[in-house]
Write a structure and sequence with these properties.
The protein has about 350 residues and is of the alpha+beta class. It has 2 domains: about 210 residues, Thrombin, subunit H; about 80 residues, Pdz3 Domain, CATH 2.30.42.10. It is built from 8 helices and 20 strands. Strands 3-4-5-8-7-6 form a 6-stranded antiparallel beta barrel. A 6-stranded antiparallel barrel has the order 9-10-11-14-13-12. Strands 15, 16, 17, 18, 19 and 20 form a 6-stranded antiparallel β-sheet that branches. A hairpin with a 2-residue loop joins strand 4 and strand 5.
């Protein structure tokens, strides 16, 4: 039996939603992981993990569909659009964890639970550093709240299950644990990369074999196996970076303590270094005169050639509000631009529900 035929023959219907977590699929998936380990490692392989099918099926009832409508004046509309749709994860009967770009500056939020009940919610927490968002429902959803697992224990070649609402389920493997940088002043130390990709990844859940949550879906990527290695997959944000801030997000809407300095620029790296792709209108970089096409070569005289070096140099300068001196190349001219940073939360509309 092929992998795909095993997967589709193992489909079960769960409360009206079709999900693929049958015994044949799980057994084949985990035996494949064991075989891969034996083939590449001469040392005796550990017994393959076994899928806890009952726990997975219960957990799948805690996945919800999420729709949001942002404020007409939301600054994020320019890049994310006003109407957004993805997945959410019940972590209590009235609390939904999702990826933040689905709910930032949202005026209206509606979730659909596994019984097809539509429930209104409100944004109660958002964290730019991790990318997590929290939604509180006005009434409890039907479904099993999903337990947080130990994302730090997840390693390359581990079999996992990526899942969204309404049977959007895909067995997968962890193909990489590595640093991830993005254009929007965002970096994760140990993102989780999986393959094959799940079709609707935004806010999707990543389960380990016992049915606990280890990651939240963020992106589709073409280089899941590593930079320069073409392998379609997804990037998941590990839940271990949620634990230290969860109580703050629930109680206060954001993490407490010092905020990172934010420049309001989108950047990318190439052979020339760190390039400015765009500036957020009326943001710190825009106000300081940074322009598209500028190449950032140093932060406070500290040379930077990659996004990771750039972000670390900026964040090392202190808290939000600190001035960030940038050395840039504009055409044939070298300039120094001082950018007065702000906290990113102060730029985007603060939901009145916080």
């Amino acid at each position: 039996m092929t992998y795909l035929s095993a997967y589709f023959s193992s489909q079960v219907v769960l409360h009206g939603w079709r999900v693929g977590v049958g015994v044949a699929c799980a057994t084949l998936l985990f035996s494949m992981a064991a075989s891969a380990q034996v083939a590449s490692d001469p040392s005796p392989a550990a017994p393959p993990a076994r899928m806890n099918e009952a726990a997975i099926e219960r957990a799948l009832t805690g996945l919800v569909k999420l729709k949001s409508v942002a404020s007409p004046r939301a600054r994020s509309n320019a890049t994310l659009g006003k109407e957004r749709e993805g997945n959410g994860i019940l972590i209590s009967p009235r609390l939904v964890l999702t990826i933040g770009y689905l709910v930032i500056e949202a005026d209206e939020i509606e979730i659909t639970d596994h019984k097809d009940r539509k429930l209104p919610g409100r944004l109660v927490g958002f964290d730019h550093d991790t990318g997590f968002g929290l939604v509180r429902l006005f009434a409890p959803a039907e479904g099993e709240p999903i337990l947080l697992g130990d994302a730090s224990a997840i390693k390359e070649r581990d079999p996992v299950l990526a899942a969204g609402a309404r049977g959007n389920v895909s067995p997968a493997f962890v193909v990489s644990r590595r640093e991830f940088t993005a254009a929007w002043e965002y970096m994760l130390d140990r993102a989780i990369f999986t393959s094959p990709p799940i079709p609707e990844w935004g806010g999707a859940a990543l389960f380990e074999p016992s049915g606990k949550l280890v990651g939240v879906g963020s992106l589709y990527v073409r280089d899941a196996g590593g930079v320069g290695r073409t392998l379609p997959g997804n990037m998941f944000v590990p839940v271990d970076i949620l634990r230290p801030i969860l109580d703050d997000l629930i109680a206060k809407g954001q993490r407490t303590g010092a905020q990172r300095p934010w420049l309001g620029i989108s950047t990318f790296e190439d052979e020339d270094g760190v390039n400015v792709g765009r500036t957020s209108p009326e943001g710190p970089g825009d106000n300081a005169g940074l322009e598209r096409g500028d190449i950032i070569t140093a932060v406070a005289n500290r040379s930077v050639k990659t996004l990771a070096e750039f972000y670390r140099a900026v964040w090392a300068r202190g808290e939000a509000g600190v001035s960030i001196p940038l050395t840039i190349t504009r055409g044939k001219e070298e300039l120094t631009v001082n950018v007065k940073s702000v906290a990113r939360n102060s730029y985007f509309a603060r939901a009145s529900q916080f």
